[in-house]
Specification:
The chain is mainly α. A hairpin with a 5-residue loop joins strand 2 and strand 3. A 3-stranded antiparallel beta sheet has the order 1-3-2. The chain is built from 4 helices and 3 strands.
Length: 73
């Protein structure tokens, strides 16, 4: 069975987002996302994959937004 068919059958509870999707969600540039993901102590909650590919858990991104909102009050 092809991987696409297997992935389609599995429920996605916490999807992994790309840097472009994170940039769109946060209304910032993709460069900003990359900059804040590539530091030794990244500002954003990032998952480093092979070959420089970065992914972000949707739930952790929402926690990040909620925390920034809480701190700005």
């Amino acid at each position: 069975m092809p991987m696409a068919a297997v992935a389609h059958q599995m429920p996605q509870k916490d999807p992994l987002l790309t840097a472009d999707e994170v940039a769109e969600r946060l209304n910032v540039s993709t460069d900003w996302v990359w900059d804040h993901s590539s530091r030794k102590a990244p500002y954003l909650p990032v998952i480093r994959m092979s070959d420089g590919v970065l992914r972000y858990r949707a739930s952790q991104l929402e926690e990040f937004v909620n925390e920034r909102e809480r701190l700005s009050r």
